[in-house]
Design goal:
With 436 residues, the chain is of the alpha/beta class. It contains 15 helices and 15 strands. The chain has three domains: 6-79, PDZ domain (Pdz3 Domain); 99-291, pyruvate-formate lyase- activating enzyme (Alpha-Beta Horseshoe); 297-434. The chain has helices at 16-19, 39-45, 117-123, 134-142, 157-164, 172-182, 200-210, 239-256, 265-271, 278-281, 293-307, 324-336, 366-373, 405-409, 427-434; strands at residues 6-11, 27-31, 50-56, 62-68, 77-79, 148-151, 186-192, 216-223, 261-263, 311-322, 340-348, 380-384, 388-391, 394-399, 416-420. The strands form four sheets. The chain has a five-stranded antiparallel β-sheet with strand order 4-3-2-1-5. A hairpin with a 5-residue loop joins β3 and β4 (62-68). It is globular, with a radius of gyration of 24 Å.
Protein backbone atom coordinates (compact mmCIF):
# COMPACT_ATOMS: atom_id res chain seq x y z
CA UNK A 1 0.00 0.00 0.00
CA UNK A 2 1.29 3.44 -0.90
CA UNK A 3 2.38 5.64 2.01
CA UNK A 4 -0.06 8.46 2.70
CA UNK A 5 1.19 11.92 1.77
CA UNK A 6 -0.65 15.04 2.88
CA UNK A 7 1.20 17.60 0.75
CA UNK A 8 0.11 21.21 1.29
CA UNK A 9 -0.73 22.87 -2.03
CA UNK A 10 -2.05 26.15 -0.60
CA UNK A 11 -3.10 27.82 2.64
CA UNK A 12 -6.16 30.06 2.92
CA UNK A 13 -5.26 33.55 4.07
CA UNK A 14 -6.07 34.39 7.72
CA UNK A 15 -6.95 30.75 8.45
CA UNK A 16 -5.67 28.71 11.40
CA UNK A 17 -3.00 27.14 9.19
CA UNK A 18 -1.91 30.58 7.98
CA UNK A 19 -1.54 31.83 11.56
CA UNK A 20 0.52 28.72 12.40
CA UNK A 21 2.90 29.47 9.49
CA UNK A 22 2.04 26.30 7.57
CA UNK A 23 3.18 26.88 3.98
CA UNK A 24 2.86 25.40 0.52
CA UNK A 25 5.24 22.44 0.23
CA UNK A 26 4.89 21.41 3.88
CA UNK A 27 3.59 17.93 4.74
CA UNK A 28 1.13 16.95 7.44
CA UNK A 29 2.51 13.71 8.91
CA UNK A 30 -0.25 12.99 11.40
CA UNK A 31 -3.27 14.48 13.18
CA UNK A 32 -4.02 13.21 16.69
CA UNK A 33 -1.64 10.30 15.97
CA UNK A 34 -3.72 9.32 12.93
CA UNK A 35 -2.66 9.44 9.29
CA UNK A 36 -5.82 10.09 7.22
CA UNK A 37 -6.11 8.19 3.95
CA UNK A 38 -8.02 10.92 2.15
CA UNK A 39 -9.76 14.27 2.45
CA UNK A 40 -12.91 12.49 3.69
CA UNK A 41 -11.18 11.03 6.74
CA UNK A 42 -9.21 14.26 7.24
CA UNK A 43 -12.46 16.28 7.34
CA UNK A 44 -13.84 14.10 10.12
CA UNK A 45 -10.63 14.09 12.17
CA UNK A 46 -10.23 17.88 12.20
CA UNK A 47 -13.73 18.31 13.63
CA UNK A 48 -12.21 17.68 17.07
CA UNK A 49 -11.80 20.79 19.21
CA UNK A 50 -8.27 19.81 20.26
CA UNK A 51 -5.75 18.74 17.64
CA UNK A 52 -2.15 17.61 17.77
CA UNK A 53 -0.59 18.03 14.33
CA UNK A 54 2.85 16.83 13.28
CA UNK A 55 4.18 18.93 10.39
CA UNK A 56 7.24 18.39 8.23
CA UNK A 57 8.17 21.78 6.82
CA UNK A 58 9.61 22.20 3.36
CA UNK A 59 13.08 22.51 4.92
CA UNK A 60 12.55 19.01 6.49
CA UNK A 61 12.22 20.49 9.99
CA UNK A 62 9.59 18.72 12.12
CA UNK A 63 7.14 20.68 14.25
CA UNK A 64 4.44 19.45 16.63
CA UNK A 65 1.53 21.87 16.89
CA UNK A 66 -1.22 21.91 19.54
CA UNK A 67 -4.49 23.52 18.42
CA UNK A 68 -7.69 24.45 20.22
CA UNK A 69 -10.52 25.47 17.93
CA UNK A 70 -14.29 25.40 17.42
CA UNK A 71 -15.82 22.02 16.62
CA UNK A 72 -16.58 22.70 12.93
CA UNK A 73 -13.78 25.19 12.23
CA UNK A 74 -11.64 24.34 9.21
CA UNK A 75 -7.83 24.59 9.30
CA UNK A 76 -7.62 26.29 5.91
CA UNK A 77 -5.28 23.81 4.24
CA UNK A 78 -5.61 22.94 0.55
CA UNK A 79 -3.95 19.65 -0.36
CA UNK A 80 -2.41 18.66 -3.69
CA UNK A 81 -4.72 15.65 -3.91
CA UNK A 82 -8.03 14.59 -2.42
CA UNK A 83 -6.65 11.11 -1.77
CA UNK A 84 -3.47 10.73 0.28
CA UNK A 85 -2.76 7.01 -0.20
CA UNK A 86 -2.92 7.07 -4.00
CA UNK A 87 -5.81 6.84 -6.46
CA UNK A 88 -7.48 3.43 -6.74
CA UNK A 89 -6.77 2.32 -10.30
CA UNK A 90 -9.26 0.79 -12.69
CA UNK A 91 -8.83 -2.97 -13.13
CA UNK A 92 -11.33 -3.23 -16.00
CA UNK A 93 -10.71 -3.38 -19.74
CA UNK A 94 -14.04 -2.03 -20.90
CA UNK A 95 -14.87 -2.50 -24.56
CA UNK A 96 -15.89 1.18 -24.78
CA UNK A 97 -13.06 2.73 -22.73
CA UNK A 98 -11.97 6.01 -24.34
CA UNK A 99 -8.61 6.02 -22.52
CA UNK A 100 -7.67 2.88 -24.43
CA UNK A 101 -8.44 4.51 -27.77
CA UNK A 102 -6.03 7.40 -27.53
CA UNK A 103 -2.80 7.72 -29.51
CA UNK A 104 0.62 7.48 -27.91
CA UNK A 105 2.58 10.59 -27.00
CA UNK A 106 -0.02 12.54 -25.02
CA UNK A 107 0.62 13.69 -21.43
CA UNK A 108 0.84 10.84 -18.92
CA UNK A 109 -2.25 11.88 -16.95
CA UNK A 110 -4.49 11.15 -19.96
CA UNK A 111 -3.64 7.44 -19.75
CA UNK A 112 -4.47 7.11 -16.05
CA UNK A 113 -7.65 5.13 -15.43
CA UNK A 114 -9.03 5.71 -11.95
CA UNK A 115 -11.89 3.78 -10.38
CA UNK A 116 -11.93 5.36 -6.92
CA UNK A 117 -15.21 5.68 -5.00
CA UNK A 118 -13.72 8.57 -3.02
CA UNK A 119 -13.20 10.65 -6.17
CA UNK A 120 -16.70 9.69 -7.24
CA UNK A 121 -18.04 11.23 -4.04
CA UNK A 122 -15.72 14.26 -4.06
CA UNK A 123 -15.47 15.07 -7.78
CA UNK A 124 -18.38 13.25 -9.43
CA UNK A 125 -16.31 10.78 -11.46
CA UNK A 126 -17.92 7.48 -12.43
CA UNK A 127 -16.83 4.18 -10.84
CA UNK A 128 -17.70 0.56 -11.64
CA UNK A 129 -17.33 -0.78 -8.05
CA UNK A 130 -15.32 -3.76 -9.34
CA UNK A 131 -12.39 -3.02 -6.99
CA UNK A 132 -14.38 -2.41 -3.80
CA UNK A 133 -13.11 -4.25 -0.72
CA UNK A 134 -14.97 -4.81 2.55
CA UNK A 135 -12.93 -2.01 4.13
CA UNK A 136 -14.29 0.37 1.47
CA UNK A 137 -17.87 -0.67 2.19
CA UNK A 138 -17.34 -0.08 5.90
CA UNK A 139 -15.93 3.38 5.28
CA UNK A 140 -18.77 4.31 2.91
CA UNK A 141 -21.24 3.37 5.64
CA UNK A 142 -19.21 4.92 8.48
CA UNK A 143 -18.87 8.30 6.78
CA UNK A 144 -22.39 8.25 5.26
CA UNK A 145 -20.98 8.70 1.75
CA UNK A 146 -23.67 9.84 -0.66
CA UNK A 147 -24.20 10.25 -3.56
CA UNK A 148 -21.86 8.14 -5.69
CA UNK A 149 -21.67 8.15 -9.50
CA UNK A 150 -21.88 4.56 -10.72
CA UNK A 151 -21.10 3.18 -14.18
CA UNK A 152 -23.84 0.56 -14.36
CA UNK A 153 -24.01 -0.01 -18.14
CA UNK A 154 -26.02 -3.19 -17.68
CA UNK A 155 -27.44 -5.24 -14.81
CA UNK A 156 -27.10 -8.49 -16.75
CA UNK A 157 -24.20 -10.21 -14.86
CA UNK A 158 -22.71 -12.05 -17.85
CA UNK A 159 -23.07 -9.06 -20.16
CA UNK A 160 -21.50 -6.68 -17.62
CA UNK A 161 -18.56 -9.06 -17.26
CA UNK A 162 -18.25 -9.16 -21.06
CA UNK A 163 -18.41 -5.38 -21.41
CA UNK A 164 -15.91 -4.64 -18.62
CA UNK A 165 -13.83 -7.76 -19.23
CA UNK A 166 -13.77 -8.30 -15.50
CA UNK A 167 -15.52 -11.15 -13.60
CA UNK A 168 -15.81 -8.87 -10.55
CA UNK A 169 -18.36 -6.81 -12.48
CA UNK A 170 -21.10 -9.44 -12.24
CA UNK A 171 -22.52 -8.52 -8.84
CA UNK A 172 -23.69 -4.97 -9.62
CA UNK A 173 -27.26 -5.58 -8.40
CA UNK A 174 -26.05 -7.02 -5.09
CA UNK A 175 -23.90 -3.93 -4.66
CA UNK A 176 -26.78 -1.58 -5.44
CA UNK A 177 -29.01 -3.42 -2.98
CA UNK A 178 -26.31 -3.00 -0.33
CA UNK A 179 -26.25 0.75 -1.09
CA UNK A 180 -30.01 0.74 -0.62
CA UNK A 181 -29.59 -0.90 2.77
CA UNK A 182 -27.10 1.75 3.96
CA UNK A 183 -29.05 4.55 2.22
CA UNK A 184 -26.29 5.65 -0.16
CA UNK A 185 -27.81 7.50 -3.13
CA UNK A 186 -26.43 7.00 -6.63
CA UNK A 187 -26.31 8.62 -10.05
CA UNK A 188 -26.20 5.85 -12.66
CA UNK A 189 -24.54 5.94 -16.06
CA UNK A 190 -25.21 3.66 -19.01
CA UNK A 191 -22.81 3.89 -21.96
CA UNK A 192 -24.94 2.52 -24.78
CA UNK A 193 -23.09 0.13 -27.08
CA UNK A 194 -25.30 -1.05 -29.97
CA UNK A 195 -25.47 -4.84 -30.12
CA UNK A 196 -24.57 -5.14 -26.45
CA UNK A 197 -26.69 -3.23 -23.92
CA UNK A 198 -29.27 -1.47 -26.09
CA UNK A 199 -32.85 -2.46 -26.89
CA UNK A 200 -34.12 -5.33 -24.71
CA UNK A 201 -31.01 -5.22 -22.51
CA UNK A 202 -31.54 -1.52 -21.81
CA UNK A 203 -35.15 -2.25 -20.86
CA UNK A 204 -34.01 -5.01 -18.48
CA UNK A 205 -31.40 -2.73 -16.89
CA UNK A 206 -33.95 -0.01 -16.27
CA UNK A 207 -36.45 -2.55 -14.88
CA UNK A 208 -33.78 -3.86 -12.49
CA UNK A 209 -32.98 -0.32 -11.37
CA UNK A 210 -36.64 0.06 -10.41
CA UNK A 211 -35.98 -2.33 -7.52
CA UNK A 212 -33.55 0.17 -6.01
CA UNK A 213 -35.27 3.33 -7.22
CA UNK A 214 -35.34 4.80 -3.70
CA UNK A 215 -31.58 5.44 -3.97
CA UNK A 216 -31.38 6.29 -7.69
CA UNK A 217 -31.25 10.06 -8.09
CA UNK A 218 -30.66 10.00 -11.86
CA UNK A 219 -29.79 7.73 -14.78
CA UNK A 220 -27.82 9.05 -17.76
CA UNK A 221 -27.77 7.10 -21.01
CA UNK A 222 -24.92 8.22 -23.28
CA UNK A 223 -23.74 6.85 -26.64
CA UNK A 224 -20.49 4.99 -27.16
CA UNK A 225 -17.69 7.31 -28.33
CA UNK A 226 -15.58 5.99 -31.21
CA UNK A 227 -12.22 7.53 -32.05
CA UNK A 228 -10.18 6.65 -35.13
CA UNK A 229 -7.68 4.91 -32.86
CA UNK A 230 -10.15 2.24 -31.71
CA UNK A 231 -8.93 -1.19 -32.78
CA UNK A 232 -12.22 -3.09 -32.49
CA UNK A 233 -15.07 -2.34 -34.85
CA UNK A 234 -18.30 -1.22 -33.20
CA UNK A 235 -21.71 -0.39 -34.50
CA UNK A 236 -22.50 3.31 -34.05
CA UNK A 237 -25.64 4.77 -32.57
CA UNK A 238 -27.73 5.72 -35.60
CA UNK A 239 -31.11 7.44 -35.96
CA UNK A 240 -33.08 4.20 -35.48
CA UNK A 241 -31.23 3.25 -32.30
CA UNK A 242 -31.43 6.83 -30.99
CA UNK A 243 -35.22 6.93 -31.46
CA UNK A 244 -35.62 3.50 -29.85
CA UNK A 245 -33.47 4.51 -26.87
CA UNK A 246 -35.39 7.74 -26.29
CA UNK A 247 -38.67 5.78 -26.40
CA UNK A 248 -37.43 3.15 -23.91
CA UNK A 249 -36.37 5.89 -21.50
CA UNK A 250 -39.70 7.71 -21.83
CA UNK A 251 -41.62 4.48 -21.15
CA UNK A 252 -39.48 3.80 -18.08
CA UNK A 253 -40.03 7.28 -16.65
CA UNK A 254 -43.74 6.97 -17.33
CA UNK A 255 -43.89 3.62 -15.50
CA UNK A 256 -42.43 5.14 -12.32
CA UNK A 257 -44.18 8.50 -12.83
CA UNK A 258 -40.92 10.35 -12.40
CA UNK A 259 -38.16 11.63 -14.72
CA UNK A 260 -34.97 10.09 -13.38
CA UNK A 261 -33.68 8.53 -16.61
CA UNK A 262 -32.43 10.85 -19.35
CA UNK A 263 -30.88 10.43 -22.77
CA UNK A 264 -27.85 12.59 -23.48
CA UNK A 265 -28.12 15.45 -25.98
CA UNK A 266 -26.44 13.44 -28.71
CA UNK A 267 -29.34 10.95 -28.90
CA UNK A 268 -31.76 13.76 -29.76
CA UNK A 269 -29.36 15.15 -32.37
CA UNK A 270 -28.94 11.70 -33.97
CA UNK A 271 -32.71 11.19 -33.87
CA UNK A 272 -33.29 14.52 -35.61
CA UNK A 273 -35.30 15.83 -32.65
CA UNK A 274 -35.09 19.02 -30.65
CA UNK A 275 -33.89 18.53 -27.08
CA UNK A 276 -36.72 18.41 -24.49
CA UNK A 277 -37.66 21.34 -22.29
CA UNK A 278 -36.06 21.81 -18.88
CA UNK A 279 -38.73 19.72 -17.10
CA UNK A 280 -37.19 16.62 -18.69
CA UNK A 281 -33.84 17.28 -17.03
CA UNK A 282 -35.09 18.25 -13.56
CA UNK A 283 -32.12 19.66 -11.64
CA UNK A 284 -29.69 18.84 -14.52
CA UNK A 285 -27.94 16.31 -12.27
CA UNK A 286 -26.04 14.71 -15.17
CA UNK A 287 -24.98 17.88 -16.98
CA UNK A 288 -21.29 16.86 -16.97
CA UNK A 289 -22.27 13.74 -18.92
CA UNK A 290 -23.72 15.82 -21.76
CA UNK A 291 -27.29 15.52 -20.52
CA UNK A 292 -29.11 18.83 -20.87
CA UNK A 293 -26.23 21.08 -21.92
CA UNK A 294 -27.97 22.12 -25.14
CA UNK A 295 -31.21 22.94 -23.32
CA UNK A 296 -29.36 25.09 -20.77
CA UNK A 297 -27.51 26.93 -23.52
CA UNK A 298 -30.66 27.48 -25.59
CA UNK A 299 -32.58 28.86 -22.61
CA UNK A 300 -29.64 31.03 -21.61
CA UNK A 301 -29.38 32.44 -25.15
CA UNK A 302 -33.06 33.45 -25.16
CA UNK A 303 -32.58 35.42 -21.93
CA UNK A 304 -29.33 36.99 -23.13
CA UNK A 305 -30.84 38.06 -26.46
CA UNK A 306 -33.13 40.44 -24.57
CA UNK A 307 -30.13 42.01 -22.80
CA UNK A 308 -27.99 42.35 -25.91
CA UNK A 309 -27.13 45.81 -27.17
CA UNK A 310 -28.78 46.89 -30.42
CA UNK A 311 -25.63 48.66 -31.52
CA UNK A 312 -21.96 48.70 -30.55
CA UNK A 313 -19.63 51.71 -30.90
CA UNK A 314 -17.51 50.60 -33.82
CA UNK A 315 -17.31 47.70 -36.24
CA UNK A 316 -16.14 44.57 -34.43
CA UNK A 317 -16.08 40.85 -35.00
CA UNK A 318 -16.52 37.88 -32.67
CA UNK A 319 -15.60 34.37 -33.78
CA UNK A 320 -16.93 31.34 -31.92
CA UNK A 321 -14.78 28.28 -32.66
CA UNK A 322 -16.30 25.04 -31.44
CA UNK A 323 -16.87 21.35 -32.15
CA UNK A 324 -19.33 19.97 -34.70
CA UNK A 325 -22.27 19.42 -32.30
CA UNK A 326 -22.33 22.87 -30.62
CA UNK A 327 -21.43 24.47 -33.97
CA UNK A 328 -24.92 23.68 -35.30
CA UNK A 329 -26.47 25.29 -32.23
CA UNK A 330 -24.38 28.46 -32.50
CA UNK A 331 -25.27 28.74 -36.19
CA UNK A 332 -28.92 28.90 -35.07
CA UNK A 333 -28.03 31.64 -32.60
CA UNK A 334 -26.19 33.55 -35.32
CA UNK A 335 -29.44 34.09 -37.23
CA UNK A 336 -31.04 35.87 -34.25
CA UNK A 337 -28.11 38.09 -33.30
CA UNK A 338 -28.77 41.46 -34.94
CA UNK A 339 -26.37 43.98 -33.43
CA UNK A 340 -25.37 46.93 -35.56
CA UNK A 341 -21.61 47.02 -36.28
CA UNK A 342 -21.16 43.43 -35.03
CA UNK A 343 -20.11 40.50 -37.18
CA UNK A 344 -20.87 37.24 -35.34
CA UNK A 345 -18.97 34.36 -36.93
CA UNK A 346 -19.13 30.65 -36.05
CA UNK A 347 -16.38 28.22 -37.09
CA UNK A 348 -16.66 24.45 -36.98
CA UNK A 349 -13.58 22.72 -35.62
CA UNK A 350 -13.49 19.31 -37.27
CA UNK A 351 -11.80 16.71 -35.09
CA UNK A 352 -8.98 15.47 -37.28
CA UNK A 353 -7.04 14.35 -34.21
CA UNK A 354 -9.51 11.79 -32.81
CA UNK A 355 -11.58 11.33 -35.95
CA UNK A 356 -14.79 12.58 -37.57
CA UNK A 357 -17.06 10.68 -35.17
CA UNK A 358 -15.85 12.71 -32.18
CA UNK A 359 -17.83 15.95 -32.21
CA UNK A 360 -17.80 17.36 -28.66
CA UNK A 361 -15.86 20.42 -27.49
CA UNK A 362 -14.13 18.59 -24.63
CA UNK A 363 -12.05 16.53 -27.09
CA UNK A 364 -10.90 19.35 -29.36
CA UNK A 365 -7.12 19.73 -29.69
CA UNK A 366 -4.97 22.82 -30.13
CA UNK A 367 -3.71 21.66 -33.51
CA UNK A 368 -7.26 21.33 -34.87
CA UNK A 369 -8.05 24.86 -33.65
CA UNK A 370 -4.94 26.20 -35.35
CA UNK A 371 -5.86 24.40 -38.58
CA UNK A 372 -9.36 25.91 -38.42
CA UNK A 373 -8.42 29.53 -37.75
CA UNK A 374 -5.21 29.89 -39.76
CA UNK A 375 -5.38 32.43 -42.56
CA UNK A 376 -8.65 33.82 -41.19
CA UNK A 377 -9.26 37.38 -40.10
CA UNK A 378 -10.16 37.01 -36.43
CA UNK A 379 -10.40 39.84 -33.91
CA UNK A 380 -11.99 38.08 -30.93
CA UNK A 381 -11.67 34.31 -30.71
CA UNK A 382 -14.02 32.59 -28.26
CA UNK A 383 -13.33 29.00 -27.13
CA UNK A 384 -14.55 26.89 -24.21
CA UNK A 385 -12.43 25.98 -21.19
CA UNK A 386 -13.61 22.35 -21.55
CA UNK A 387 -10.98 22.03 -24.28
CA UNK A 388 -8.24 22.72 -21.75
CA UNK A 389 -6.57 20.68 -19.02
CA UNK A 390 -8.69 20.49 -15.87
CA UNK A 391 -7.00 21.19 -12.55
CA UNK A 392 -9.54 20.82 -9.76
CA UNK A 393 -12.14 23.52 -10.32
CA UNK A 394 -9.78 25.49 -12.55
CA UNK A 395 -8.11 24.89 -15.89
CA UNK A 396 -4.61 25.19 -17.33
CA UNK A 397 -4.02 26.69 -20.76
CA UNK A 398 -2.98 23.34 -22.27
CA UNK A 399 -4.93 21.27 -24.80
CA UNK A 400 -5.09 17.46 -25.05
CA UNK A 401 -2.32 17.37 -27.66
CA UNK A 402 0.03 19.55 -25.59
CA UNK A 403 -0.57 22.71 -27.60
CA UNK A 404 -1.16 25.84 -25.51
CA UNK A 405 -3.10 29.09 -25.70
CA UNK A 406 0.24 30.72 -26.58
CA UNK A 407 0.46 28.44 -29.63
CA UNK A 408 -3.02 29.59 -30.70
CA UNK A 409 -1.98 33.22 -30.18
CA UNK A 410 1.01 32.77 -32.50
CA UNK A 411 -1.37 32.40 -35.46
CA UNK A 412 -2.45 36.02 -35.00
CA UNK A 413 -0.72 38.21 -32.40
CA UNK A 414 -3.40 40.92 -32.69
CA UNK A 415 -6.21 38.47 -32.00
CA UNK A 416 -7.81 38.55 -28.54
CA UNK A 417 -8.62 35.13 -27.09
CA UNK A 418 -11.61 34.72 -24.75
CA UNK A 419 -11.93 31.48 -22.75
CA UNK A 420 -15.44 30.66 -21.56
CA UNK A 421 -15.54 29.23 -18.04
CA UNK A 422 -19.16 28.08 -18.29
CA UNK A 423 -20.02 26.54 -21.64
CA UNK A 424 -23.66 25.92 -20.69
CA UNK A 425 -24.32 29.63 -20.43
CA UNK A 426 -24.39 32.44 -23.01
CA UNK A 427 -23.79 35.17 -20.39
CA UNK A 428 -20.02 35.36 -20.94
CA UNK A 429 -20.48 35.81 -24.70
CA UNK A 430 -23.13 38.47 -23.99
CA UNK A 431 -20.62 40.36 -21.82
CA UNK A 432 -18.01 40.22 -24.61
CA UNK A 433 -20.54 41.65 -27.12
CA UNK A 434 -21.83 44.37 -24.79
CA UNK A 435 -18.29 45.47 -23.89
CA UNK A 436 -17.15 45.96 -27.48
Amino acid sequence: MKKCELLVEDVIKNSIADELKIKKGDKILSINNTIPKDIIEYSYIINDEELNILVEHKNKKLEEIEIEKDFDEDLGIVFSSAVFDGVKKCCNHCIFCFVDQQPKGLRDSLYVKDDDWRLSYIQGTYVTLTNLKEEDWQRIEQYHISPLFISVHTTNPELREKMTRNPNAKNIMEQLKRFKKIKTKIHAQIVLCPGYNDGKELKKTLEDLKTVKSIVKSIAVVPLGISKFRKEKFKKVDKKIALETIKIIEEFNSSIKKNIAMASDEFFILAGLDVPDKKYYGDFLQIEDGVGAIRLLKDSFKKCLKKMKKKIKSKSKITIATASTPYKLFKEFQKDIKVENLEFEVLEIKNNFFGKDINIAGLITGEDIIETIKDKNIENLVISSVMLKKNGENYEEVFLDGKTIKDIQKTNKKMKIHILKNHYNFDEILNIINNL
